[in-house]
Amino acid sequence: MATLHPVDRAADRRSGVPAIATQGLTKDYGSVLALDSLDVTVGTGVTGLVGANGAGKSTLIKILLGLLDPTAGSAQVLGHDIATEGAEIRARVGYMPEHECLPPDVSASDFVVHMAQMSGLPHAAARERAADVLRHVGLAEERYRPMGGYSTGMKQRAKLAQALAHDPRLVLLDEPTNGLDPASRDDMLELVRRIGHDFGIAVLVTSHLLGELERVSDHVVVLDGGRLLRASATTDFLDTTGTLLVEVLGGATERDLLGRALHDAGFPSRPRGNVVAVEPPAPGDTRNVHDMIRDTAVDLGLGLVRIQPDHHRIEDIFREEVAGAVQPH
Amino acid sequence: MPSSHTEPRTGGPAGRAGGVIHDIGYRPYAGPRGGHGAIARSLYLTGVRNVFGLGRSGKSKILPFALLALNVLPAVIIVGVVTFIGLSSLPLAYPEYAATTTILLGTFAAAQGPILFSRDLRHGTISLYLARPLSATAYALARWGALATGIFAFVMAPILVMYLGALLAQMDAGEQTTDFLAATLVSLLLAGMLASVSGLFSAIALRRGFAVVGTIGTILFGYGVVAVIQGISLEQDQERVGEIAGLFHPMTLYAGLVNVLTDADNAITPPTGAAMEVLYVVVSVLLALGGLGLLLLRYRRLATR
Ligand SMILES: Nc1ncnc2c1ncn2[C@@H]1O[C@H](COP(=O)(O)OP(=O)(O)OP(=O)(O)O)[C@@H](O)[C@H]1O
Ligand SMILES: [Mg+2]
């Protein structure tokens, strides 16, 4: 009986191959062009795959797993070709589908053990792994109860646990926050972040909510109607805009006092919430903005609370590009 | 965050010794991973357990074990009577047993097929299997094997009880063993045929109820129809018609096989002539393997859409 090569993480990591790479990937369902000549590369860490309903997110994931055949184009997962090395890919990848996939009459514990064995782990090792991952996803005593009685949050955790059962190199998480209340959603996103950063497993996570992936993703890929709209590092979005946000003690009166003084000094300033947004000085103006703000506040007798740089939010950047294609929350 | 993203795995449990003891962090798995054969064997074994409700919720065990108890009970009574009275032979030949408990056998096959096939399709679990190394056809083969094994065990349990009882009652061991092995052979063919019928219904009907009704209808009602045709043809001295009708149902095929392959006989119109006897064996094997082939085809199409 053939034994698959043990999954050599060190080699995978050293080789520097991207977790996912696609070239001209196309899926035509006949009635719908779900993916339109897609070129993307996904590396380590957490990558958010964002798009409205029907953008092609699930189609992409299923093609990467070999569950669907592409109409055209090619793709590699962890350096393995989807057309010829499906079994190798599926041995190294974990999949959390968007739909229900749990048998109701089996306990999470038994199920995760079974799924680890379905990736080739021996029984004893599978039991150990199941206990580990169920602890990581936060399923406690309920792991011994049939999953039919689980809440949506518990079901999502069990689905995630089976995706991690065999210690994959990459997990494909299709809408893991679907149907969760805000608190469970935060828990799930924190888990996703830990998987990508602390567990060292590359993550591709989909959502149609741009805002929620911003916090946990290193990269964001935006799909719109099967086409790549944008792929960037999340840090690109978080680059400072040059604007400074200044907060002083007191209320609107104090805020506006400072704002007007700075404006008169030649720094365009606007009130924003309870702070003053101070735009950078014009090119050629060599004055130090920080010093100016501090001196102005002292002159006016205002208590300075903080000065901090203003960041772009992904949503602000995409709002125009996507033009309604992605729901920003 | 990404800028401070350092090598996360190099620490391992030892490197994290300074951390809190109860949180040992994520442990990668470096142990062996079996190939397709090992995975298929594991799927098969889990399937055999699941057929009897093992590894599933408590109430899943009730039906299979109640049916099994009812199926074995007459055999226990027979053994009791035989040893008490001291008979020199069993009142019922081994392979005739399954024919007299067709209702139990049909119910078992119909009720447990959906456990192995409909359940995964209905609850979407199949996509988790397809996202793992085993191919869809290997999955279906392991599932079919588990169902056939479960049915075989169900058929053989009472026969084994009778066999042990016969040996205990000091009947001719050689004769009993020969009969027992012949019964094992025809039971294997019966289990294969029933697994294919039940498996096919279960892989097409996602709702367990439809699969159960379809299988029970085919096994019990269809059996009644064929048996009536055979009865009439016997009355009318048209045995050939009955022999041909018998080819269209697993239970009448089984009765014919028993006639051909063992010393026992409980067919209404047993196959006569070498050609018809061979035909019964060939059709039985074709039904079992053909049904399996259709199952594999169904799962291959599921996998590549
Ligand atoms: N089997 C199929 N046959 C025909 N069209 C399909 C099929 N599956 C998906 N589609 C279509 O392809 C497009 C992309 O679907 P897909 O499920 O990949 O989108 P998605 O981004 O995952 O959407 P959602 O956020 O709703 O999950 C949609 O227009 C969908 O209707
Ligand atoms: Mg989707």
What is the second-level CATH architecture of the largest domain in chain A?
3-Layer(aba) Sandwich
Which class do the helix and strand fractions of chain B yield? mainly alpha
Q: What is the first-to-last residue Cα distance of chain A?
A: 51 Å
Total count of helical runs of at least 4 residues of chain A? 12
Report the average pLDDT across residues of chain A.
86
Stretches of chain A where pLDDT is under 50 for at least 5 consecutive residues are 1-6, 322-329
The CATH class name of the largest domain in chain A reads Alpha Beta
State the total count of DSSP E strands of chain A: 15
Number of domains of chain A: 2
Beta-strand portion of chain A reads: 15-25%
Poorly predicted runs of 5 or more residues of chain B = 1-22
Oligomer: heterodimer
How would you sum up the global shape of chain A? Answer: elongated
For the sheet with most strands of chain A, the description reads: 6 strands, mixed
Say which molecules are bound, naming each kind only once. adenosine-5'-triphosphate, magnesium ion
Which word captures the global form of chain B? globular
Helix and strand element order of chain A: HEEEEHEEHEHHHEHEHEEHEHEEHEH
- Give the strand order, joined by hyphens, for the main sheet of chain A: 7-8-9-4-10-11
**CATH-level-4 superfamily name of the largest domain in chain A:** P-loop containing nucleotide triphosphate hydrolases
